[in-house]
Amino acid sequence: MIARITYALRETWASFRRNLTLTAAAVLTSAIALLLVGTTLLIQRAFENLLVQWRGDVEMIVFVRSDASPDQIAFVDSSIRQADTIVDVEKLQYLDKTQTYEEAKRIFIGDPVTLSLLTPENIPSQFKVVPLTEDPALVRSLSEQFRSLPGVEDVALAEDEFQVISTLSQFIRVVTLVMSIVLLIVAVGLIWNTIRTAMFARRREIEVMKLVGATNWFIRIPFMLEGLLQGLLGALAACGGLWVLNSAWTNGVAGFKPGTGISSLIVPSGFLSGVMLSMLILGAIVGAVGSAIAASRFLDV
């Protein structure tokens, strides 16, 4: 058993070095495709971070200043409830400073700089409003009315947030996903061609091995390991590139004014690790599929 494993590894490495140009092309293509896949996942998670506070069909958020008095908070509450004469309010939820801070920790989970500037004492509380109307003009007119109330710091509308976020996320996600799928198919084809070339170059040796009784699987395994290695190397390169991109993005966002929405686009390191693990698995699958097809189809040389 040890001798067979040693033979498989030795032949895999020899074949890997023999077709260095094709191997490099296959690894590079796999790396670019997997980098696009990882980038797509990070972008999707980043935009989801922006939408944390808008879950539950919330259309409007009225932010109350951190130094607002209880009377001012009560006045804002009553004003929103009295707005039923203009727009029916299906749901009204008040988040105090502690609850708002807990939500902020989810929104800015990947931005410790911004989060360090927020405390349960200085963070604004908020009213989340779910109106029944689908007329954005009515909701916008109501927001202007609330914005002038004493104690109100600002009013945010889901329409403004979703329009920008949905347009950007859909465009980027579709483009990167299509490109990554195409490149993954190309990577499988390159690995397939690399293994086919390697088997053709060793056709005499394969014929001799068959004559002395070697099984098909004994012959296939070194070639399949070669494809698997190519996929893993591409995945490792993609993981390194994704880490560099994410670090550059995180450092770049740190230069923006704290508290701006852009800081919510930072992805937590735990999610990045999960994406890298998925990329390694996908790279191994891509390499295994390409090499398995070639090793099965071109074994009779």
Structural class: alpha+beta
**Overall pLDDT score:** 76
The radius of gyration computed from the alpha-carbon positions, rounded to a whole number of angstroms, is: 28 Å
What share of residues is helical? Answer: 55-70%
Number of domains: 2
Strand content is: 5-15%
Low-pLDDT stretches are none
Order of helices and strands: HHEHEHHEHEHHHH
Number of strands: 4
Tell the overall outline.
elongated
Number of helices: 10
In angstroms, what separates the terminal alpha carbons? 27 Å
| Major sheet characteristics | 4 strands, antiparallel
| Largest sheet, spatial ordering of strands | 2-3-1-4
Q: How would you characterize the overall build of this protein?
A:
By secondary structure, this protein is α+β, with helices and mostly antiparallel strands. It folds into two domains: 2-51 and 163-297, no CATH class; 55-158, Alpha-Beta Plaits (2-Layer Sandwich). 69% of the residues lie in helices and 8% in strands. It contains ten helices and four strands, in the order H-H-E-H-E-H-H-E-H-E-H-H-H-H. The chain has helices at 2-18, 20-50, 70-82, 97-107, 112-116, 136-147, 158-201, 203-211, 216-253, 269-297, and strands at residues 60-64, 89-95, 125-131, 152-157. The chain has a four-stranded antiparallel sheet. Helix 2 crosses helix 9. The longest helix is centred in the middle third of the chain and has 44 residues, at 158-201. The protein is elongated, with a radius of gyration of 28 Å. 33% of the residues are buried.
